[in-house]
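Need tokens for this chain, all 129 residues.
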Amino acid sequence: MEIVLDKRAVKQIRLSAQDAIEEGDTETLREDILEAFTEEQVEEIERRLDSGDFYEFLTEMLDEWSGDDVDELFELLDAQLGDIGVDIKFEKKGGADDDEDEDDEDLDDYDDDDEDLDDEDEDDEDDDD
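Here are the structure tokens for all 129 residues:
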């Protein structure tokens, strides 16, 4: 089974992990990791777990985490899920989607210019009358 966590979920986990590092509390982090997965994904993971409890799985994983490196947390999550046959991928920050957002902004500017040209065309048509 393959699970891909989108950039939004990865960012939320990163922020939550950073908070856990600063405050020493992993409860919110555990909840945020759990929320990053869909209900169907959680059910499939639980079918593969001996305990059958994803929340318990996350608790044990966070107990193994040193609590001082966000990347280590992602590596641990990848390794622990890999052990039960779940291949997890994390969408990276940046990437093509961010470029598309910039392109959209450029297109918006271009569209505004087109509207100005349309107004000029209408003025030209009025002159012909």
